[in-house]
Amino acid sequence: MSIKFVQCQNLAEIGEKASQLFIKQVKSDPNSVFILATGSSPLSTYKAIVQDYKINHTDWSKVVTFNLDEYIDLDKRYSNQSYRYFMHENLFWHINIKHTYFPTKELIGDKYQKLINQYHQVDLAILGVGNNGHIAFNEPGTPINTETHIVNLTLSSRQANARFFNDDIDSVPKAAITMGLKEILAAKKILLIASGSAKKIAINHLKRAKAFDSNWPITALINHDNVIVFTSNLDD
Questions:
Q1: Given 67, 70, 134, 224, which residue is catalytic?
Q2: 99 is catalytic
């Protein structure tokens, strides 16, 4: 296991540090391939990347990105809650990126990975973590060798996302498509962001883990040799 834990004061500091890893990678290899996450965890990172683009004009035109997950059967009233919309609103519309992909029903199994392989191995993946230890939508009980698949979302995950649906849990999709743990672990480097006391239990499970525990999918990261975990406010 090679996991580096970096404690930060807040998400803004995490965003500054995490964004520099992306920017450095893009400058060293304009054809870089990234796995991207949605949600509040990476938001400050994307904001910092956009700010760098405005000031330094870092060229993202040849970069290729693959998003971790997407809702299935999203109510049209909430189309602005799709992860595709989130990425465009918070990153893609603000930089000169051209090559972005999202998982779909047509890309389950090994097909999403085969699409990635048309480029090259993922250079950097950014992840958040759920209160129950899920990464992407790999919920507790997910085998470590899982590839892109459709998942029924747990009640806790749907409750966590209800705030984006006018606090109406019945409007939160019941299923999503997600990259599997196998594909995430294939990235050369992984960044994970955890902020707030609700994430402390999951992070503690990762710190104590000696082997993968499917009840806490985050523990899959102990099988990777290049992981950085940015944390803030876990004791709030």
A1: 134
A2: no
Q: How far is CA 219 from the centre of its chain?
A: 15
- In this predicted structure, the answer to whether residue 191 has a pLDDT above a threshold of 70 is yes
Q: How far is CA 192 from the centre of its chain?
A: 8
Does the annotation mark 70 as catalytic?
A: no
Q: Is the pLDDT of residue 177 over 90?
A: yes
- Which pLDDT value is given to residue 1? 57
Please list, in sequence order, all residues whose beta carbon lies within 8 angstroms of the beta carbon of residue 124, skipping any fewer than 6 positions away. Answer: 21, 22, 25, 32, 34, 35, 187, 188, 189, 190, 191
Q: What is the pLDDT of residue 157?
A: 76
Look at residue 156 in the predicted model and tell me its pLDDT: 79
Q: Which two tokens stand for residue 183?
A: 């594909």
- Write the pLDDT tens digit of every residue in 11-61: 999 999 999 999 999 999 999 999 999 989 999 999 999 999 999 999 999
Give the active site residue among 52, 67, 123, 132: 132
Distance CA 104, CA 190 (A): 23
To the query of whether residue 147 is one of the catalytic residues in this protein, the response is no
Cβ(104)–Cβ(177) below 8 Å? yes
Q: Phi/psi at 165 (nearest 5 deg)?
A: -125, 45
Catalytic residue among 69, 70, 123, 213: 69
Q: Is 132 annotated in the active site?
A: yes
Q: Which of 52, 139, 183, 213 is catalytic?
A: 139
CA angle at residue 131 from 219 to 162, to 5 degrees? 140
Q: What is the pTM of this model?
A: 0.94
Phi, psi (deg, nearest 5) at residue 76: -60, -25
